[in-house]
């Protein structure tokens, strides 16, 4: 006799409960006559807006949504952070990488990302849910409605996308298993399906295959409803309803609530009929006034009088301002998979809502109905409305809470960058070009000890890891250990053995918009010598400010003759020459000596140029360029220049900047990041030429897939009247500004330059180490540079730690 197959009643109950028949063409078909559509939303952080900006945005959003006459929901469901896409991107990079140093970074980063995923860090998935009864043509009506809402949101700075079948399935899976990581786009395999050797066994997700679909989105372990408790798989939760609101709610009141990492939150908004709402408000006002008059308790009487006043204000808005008012009901389910923490988690949720002046009440034996309303696949439950959960609510008060704000910043090919102050992971692709981000250049500002250098090193490591060539101009010797640990080339450019020959002519930067060299607008030989003579004119004036105009003209004329002696003319293609084929300063000096026999003016030039040619400065400049720039990680250490004269430092920095620029434009297919730390040395008001050169690099680098990063203590360094024209441009051009702790006059200047709100100024004034205000395009984000330990270890102990 065959034994009957036993069926786990919990699993059976759970599958019956999951109200899903099929998911097809962006629509979820339920078992109970209704169809559902969803919009994934992601609004930017509103905390850093000014009050005027928040007020305007809330009003615009309310006006845009006021033409919706059917109810809709906002669902926030925490999901375990998904770093798989980042890991997959790094794995692809690793396959094409042979250099040990980069492999060290890639492997360390993958391990760190896996650890982030395993530690269970959660982030909110916020969606708008709409529904209608299933009938012929209603699916088109629903899609039309979704498109209308999406368009209204996008017009008001909210990222909104209608969800696909795959995304809807993912939403249901996350709701079913709250503590389990679910990769989006996961394929299901079945070993019983015969396939050709070498191919994967994919289990097709046909929308009419209800059993398969239900097996994906039903909680493992079933659902159990008890009194004041619901158990979903391994997770226990308790559902509360919001029963009392403050008369006045602050802007952004819903942001922290919707971004909670251990609560499902559901806001159901039902637009109201103006006449019905007016009658309901009138009755409520009369009842509140009557109760207040009869109330002997002073506190209770004052509360009733405030309720009556709020009702009067609502009627005024409804009648005179034509404001949209409807009914709002809020459900909250804190949850945990640790039984011993259950009551603490619930208490924390109640306290969080209380801090926003909203009272939560447990729904007791109504957990099942409440869980249905929280779900992605049930309509609001009428039984809950009878429990006094529906509250008259102006739409602008709801939009002013900014419940669609998600503190997540992700690029599709991004690498880990930092965390938001809520702990969410920020992943950025500094090579991305689109929307309001046209370059990857960075400005980092802040007082010493704020974490500026550590953050910059972290960014450098990330860029080097993905194949960007790194060139660092290091005036404090802070990057030597990092360079050595990554098998880079550390070059002593401050008077050691490294020489950059100022007389070596740099090729003209070619126009990269044409593919074939013969079609390019500019060629490497076009006036290269003429252009370089102008560069040398600046270099010589920086080193020898006493040169007169006549003397400078003689030097340039002499230099032309010396170049000719070396076979270099106006038309020479200098890109074909080796460093040894160029003259050096002793050649120019010797020419001066030769000419002095006939023209005594050259005696003075020989005296002025002796130091550069044979004297103390010859260790810097009299020799052929001997720096090997082939390594993809180069540190030009200029620490030895700290005690040199200002004229010498200015000239050498100008010389180094020319070398860096030559590397940045050498190959348009090789992205390069040039880092100028302690950039105040370059931004010298006494010599605006170096600031101008830096400005030019910052403005032109994106044409060659390159980037410029500058770091200094104060924004004032950029704004001296002598260089403000160039300094302001450097600040404006960079798409990434990292503002660390600052105060006093510098805080005022920073706030004025970047148009910061009072909240943002307070962040900078009280900022902790490692935290910064990031201006990324038009977005302002308060970030925490929580850097993986393996990266900190590679940085070494020099500075910035």
Question: How would you sum up this structure, described in words?
Answer:
It is a single chain. With 801 residues, this protein is an alpha+beta fold. It has 27 helices and 26 strands. The strands form two sheets. Strands 1, 2, 3, 4, 5, 6, 7, 8, 9, 10, 11, 12, 13 and 14 form a 14-stranded antiparallel beta sheet that branches. Strands 15-17-16-26-25-24-18-23-22-19-21-20 form a twelve-stranded mixed beta sheet. A hairpin with a 4-residue loop joins β2 and β3. The longest helix is centred in the middle third of the chain and has 23 residues. The protein is elongated and about 115 Å long. The termini are far apart. The relative contact order is 0.11. The N terminus is likely disordered.
List the helices and strands and how they pair.
Layout: H1 9-17, E1 22-24, E2 27-29, E3 34-43, H2 51-65, E4 72-80, H3 84-95, H4 100-118, E5 122-133, H5 138-154, E6 158-162, H6 165-176, H7 210-217, E7 223-226, E8 229-232, E9 235-237, E10 240-245, H8 255-258, E11 263-271, H9 274-294, H10 298-320, E12 325-336, H11 342-355, E13 358-362, H12 367-374, H13 382-385, E14 391-394, H14 395-399, E15 409-410, E16 415-420, E17 425-428, E18 442-445, H15 452-465, E19 469-474, H16 480-485, E20 489-492, H17 528-543, H18 549-565, H19 585-596, H20 601-613, H21 618-621, E21 633-637, H22 646-666, E22 672-676, H23 688-700, E23 706-712, H24 724-733, E24 736-739, H25 744-754, H26 758-765, E25 771-776, E26 779-784, H27 789-795
Parallel strand pairs: 15-17, 18-23, 18-24, 19-21, 19-22, 20-21, 22-23
Antiparallel strand pairs: 1-2, 2-3, 3-5, 3-6, 4-5, 4-11, 7-8, 8-9, 9-12, 10-12, 10-13, 11-12, 12-14, 16-17, 16-26, 24-25, 25-26
């Amino acid at each position: 006799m065959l034994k009957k197959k036993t069926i786990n009643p919990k699993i059976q109950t759970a599958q019956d409960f999951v109200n899903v028949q099929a998911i097809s063409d962006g629509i979820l078909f339920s078992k109970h006559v209704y169809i559902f559509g969803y919009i994934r939303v992601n609004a930017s952080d509103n905390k850093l807006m000014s009050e005027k900006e928040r007020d305007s945005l809330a009003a615009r959003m309310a006006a845009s949504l006021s033409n919706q006459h059917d109810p809709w929901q906002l669902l926030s469901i925490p999901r375990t952070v998904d770093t798989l896409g980042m890991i997959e991107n790094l794995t692809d990079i690793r396959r094409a990488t042979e250099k040990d140093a980069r492999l060290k970074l890639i492997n360390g980063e993958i391990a760190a990302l896996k650890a982030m995923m395993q530690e269970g860090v959660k982030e909110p998935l916020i969606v708008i849910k709409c529904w209608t009864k299933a009938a012929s043509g209603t699916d088109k009506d629903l899609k039309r409605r979704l498109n209308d809402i999406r368009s209204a949101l996008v017009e008001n700075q909210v990222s909104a996308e209608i969800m696909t079948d795959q995304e809807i399935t993912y939403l249901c899976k996350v709701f079913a298993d709250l503590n389990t990581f679910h990769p989006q786009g996961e394929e299901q395999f079945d070993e019983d399906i015969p396939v050709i050797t070498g191919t994967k066994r994919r289990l097709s997700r046909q929308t009419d295959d209800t059993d398969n679909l239900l097996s994906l989105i039903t909680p493992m372990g079933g659902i159990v409803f008890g009194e004041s408790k619901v158990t979903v798989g391994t997770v226990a939760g308790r559902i509360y309803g919001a029963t009392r609101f403050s008369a006045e709610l602050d802007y952004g009141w819903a942001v922290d609530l919707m971004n909670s990492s251990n609560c499902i939150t559901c806001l159901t908004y039902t637009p109201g009929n103006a006449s019905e709402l007016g009658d309901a408000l009138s009755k409520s006002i009369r009842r509140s006034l009557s109760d207040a008059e009869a109330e002997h308790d002073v506190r209770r009487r004052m509360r009733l009088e405030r309720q009556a006043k709020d009702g009067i204000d609502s009627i005024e808005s409804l009648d005179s301002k034509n404001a949209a008012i409807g009914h709002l009901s809020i459900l909250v389910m804190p949850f945990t998979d640790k039984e011993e923490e259950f009551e603490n988690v619930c208490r924390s949720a109640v306290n969080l809502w209380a801090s926003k002046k909203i009272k939560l009440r447990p729904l007791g034996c109504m957990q099942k109905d409440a869980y249905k309303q929280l779900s992605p696949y049930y309509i609001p439950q009428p039984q809950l409305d009878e429990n006094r959960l529906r509250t008259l609510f102006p739409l602008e008060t709801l939009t002013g809470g900014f419940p669609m704000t998600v503190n997540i910043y992700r690029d599709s090919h991004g690498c880990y960058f930092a965390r938001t102050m809520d702990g969410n992971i920020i992943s950025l692709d500094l090579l991305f070009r689109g929307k309001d981000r046209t370059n990857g250049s960075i400005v980092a500002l802040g007082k010493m000890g704020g974490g500026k250098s550590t953050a910059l090193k972290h960014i450098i490591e990330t860029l080097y890891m993905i194949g960007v060539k790194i060139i660092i101009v290091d005036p404090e010797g802070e990057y030597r250990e990092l360079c050595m640990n990554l098998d880079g080339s550390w070059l002593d450019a401050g008077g050691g053995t490294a020489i950059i020959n100022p007389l070596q002519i740099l090729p003209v930067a070619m126009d990269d918009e044409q593919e074939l060299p013969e079609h390019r607008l500019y060629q490497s030989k076009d006036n290269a010598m003429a252009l370089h003579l102008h560069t040398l004119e600046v270099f010589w004036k920086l080193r020898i400010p006493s040169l007169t105009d006549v003397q400078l003209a003689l030097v340039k004329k002499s230099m032309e003759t010396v170049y000719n002696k070396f076979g270099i003319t106006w038309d020479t293609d200098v890109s074909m020459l080796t460093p040894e084929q160029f003259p050096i300063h002793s050649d120019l000096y010797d020419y001066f000596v030769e000419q002095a026999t006939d023209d005594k003016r050259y005696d003075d030039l020989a005296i002025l140029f002796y130091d550069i040619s044979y004297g103390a400065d010859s260790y810097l400049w009299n020799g052929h360029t001997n720096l090997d720039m082939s390594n993809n990680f180069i540190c030009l250490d200029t620490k030895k220049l700290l005690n040199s004269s200002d004229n010498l430092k200015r000239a050498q920095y100008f010389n180094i900047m020319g070398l860096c620029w030559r590397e940045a434009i050498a190959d348009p297919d090789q992205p390069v990041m040039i880092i100028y730390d302690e950039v105040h040395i370059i931004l010298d008001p006494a010599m605006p030429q170096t600031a101008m050169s830096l400005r030019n690099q910052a403005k032109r680098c994106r044409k060659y897939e390159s980037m410029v990063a500058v770091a200094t203590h104060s924004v004032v360094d950029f704004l001296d009247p002598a260089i403000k024209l160039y300094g302001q441009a450097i600040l404006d051009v960079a798409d990434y500004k990292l503002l660390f702790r600052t105060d006093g006059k510098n805080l005022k200047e920073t706030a004025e330059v970047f148009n910061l709100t009072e909240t943002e100024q307070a962040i900078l004034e009280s900022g902790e180490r490692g935290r910064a205000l990031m201006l990324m395009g038009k977005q302002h984000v308060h970030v925490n540079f929580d850097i993986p330990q393996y990266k900190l270890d590679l940085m070494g102990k020099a500075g910035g730690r």
